[in-house]
Amino acid sequence: QVRLVESGGGSVQAGGSLKLSCVASGYSITSCEMGWYRQAPGKERELVSTISTAGGITTYAGSVKGRFTISRDNAKSTVYLQMNSLKTEDTAVYLCAACRSYWGQGTQVTVSS
Fold first, then answer.
1. Per-residue H/E/C for the chain
2. How far is the CA of 53 from the CAs of 16, 29, 46, in angstroms?
3. What's the count of helices (H) and strands (E) in the chain, helices before strands?
4. Closest CA to 17 of 91, 94, 82
5. Which helix (H) or strand (E) holds 96?
6. Is 39 in a helix, a strand, or coil?
7. Residue closest to 89 by CA, chosen among 70, 65, 63
8. What is the CA radius of gyration of the chain?
9. Are 22 and 13 within 8 A, CB to CB?
10. Taking every pair of C-alpha atoms in the chain, what is the biggest distance, in angstroms?
11. Is there a contact between 50 and 33 (Cβ–Cβ < 8 Å)?
12. pLDDT of residue 27
């Protein structure tokens, strides 16, 4: 049974930083593209960032480019999202996805002005 568990969310003031983690169990993510998505209240789920299986290729939504960094440690079955210079519009539930098929429950990120 595949399980993805996100952590690291919280409340922070604008301009602050958070680092999210997503730990996979019951499944090897080494063959999976991993991604971070977010969903704000009343909005559709948005793709934030992806990282290829070996970590050599990353993509970012335009709204987070230059502020967020995705990385992965396959030995630890973990994917990270370092979020810097946070803005109020980054407030959302952040979800981790493996192979665009398996999803975690999400972690709340709240950025206040």
1. CCEEEEECCEEEECCCCEEEEEEEECCCHHHCCEEEEEECCCCCCEEEEEECCCCCCEEECCCCCCCEEEEEEHHHCEEEEEECCCCHHHCEEEEEEECCCEECCCEEEEEEC
2. 29, 8, 21
3. 0, 11
4. 82
5. strand 92-98
6. strand
7. 63
8. 13
9. no
10. 40
11. yes
12. 78
Inform me whether the pLDDT recorded for 103 exceeds 90.
yes
Residue 80 · residue 19 · CB < 8 Å: yes
Give the amino acid at 88.
Answer: T
| Residue 13 structure tokens | 């003031």
**CB–CB of 41/34 below 8 Å?**
no
Structure tokens at 10: 């919280």
**Structure token pair of residue 87:** 């803005």
Per-residue pLDDT of 48-91, as tens digits, reads 999 999 889 999 999 999 999 999 999 999 999 999 999 999 99
The token pair that represents 62 in the structure block? 């335009």
Query: 14-55 pLDDT, tens per residue?
Result: 999 999 999 999 878 888 999 999 999 999 999 999 999 988
Left if phi > 0, otherwise alpha if psi is -120 to 50, otherwise beta: which for 66? left
